[in-house]
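task queued by scheduler; priority normal; single chain, no ligands, no partner chains; default sampling; output format set to structure tokens
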Amino acid sequence: MFEILLTVCLAGDPATCTTELHPGGETLESCRAAATELAARANGVAQEWPCAEAGATPSFTVTEVAPGVFVHRGVHAEAAAENQGDLANIGFVVGTDSVAVIDAGGSAAVARDLLAAIRRETDLPVRWLVLTHMHPDHVLGAPVFEAEGATVVGHADLARALGARRETYLEANAELIGPGFEGSGTPAEVDPVDVQRKIDLGGRVLLLEAHPTAHTDNDLTVFDTATGTWFLGDLLFIDHLPAIDGSIAGWIELDATLATREAARAVPGHGPVAVQWPVGGDPLRQYLAALAAAVRDAIRAGVPIQDVTATVGAEMAEGWLLVGAFHGRNVLAAFKELEWE
């Protein structure tokens, strides 16, 4: 027998969540079908809906958001020993010949958990590790999948960006995470994507696209053509306040383009395991637009940079999590960029 572990958060209050157990039937297949239907009817925002054997509550869960497409939901927090750097949504796609992993997690400990989840689903080789961008919560588990023989693929600018921050990332996260960080690191080599590339897993093709500067200067998305599932990485934040490490103007422009594209569902870098697209990106769009407008107003009013974080208030960030950690940084990043328009 199987059980459904349904986690639902209140709409408009992502910090208020409950996890409920529901009967899932006698087979894993029937459980997953029931879980998907249950998530669609949830009174709130379904965050994840994995199936597990009755009586067993795994510490590391993956949710099948579409046939053969699995996502693990990271926690909304900063890296620490208690979470092992398990902050980002990461996942994998299973073809008839091989598996592709989408992002490696923030430590080797997280990557090993993801690899164990893959092995519960399939014995097929992990041939690809696709990294959506350079941030440590997405890349530092890479050595685990390199040891499996996976080719690491990323934006053409990813290797350069990681090279510039490698030592900082390793030192800071080793201190924050502690013993669980052992074996973590950045990839030894990255196979670059300049514009687009297709990888065939056998029976399903993934479309990889490199984008201009937005969240970072090395954002890459992954579209599963078989199911219409779009891994957007940190080009899509939900619940967790967005973080600007590239260009706010570029992000707004790119998002407007991406919003015209059709997808059955989108997987955000942070937030629920899957959301409708493009409506799922509305809160992100509203925050970025409000921030850009407020910063431009401050610049026109002659507010000096040292005072801008006090002038551009956090009211636009209401309803988001981790505001204290990221809103002030976003204000400064936007000011430094937009003052030269």
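post-processing summary
- The CA atoms of residues 121 and 238 lie 28 Å apart.
- The radius of gyration is 20 Å.
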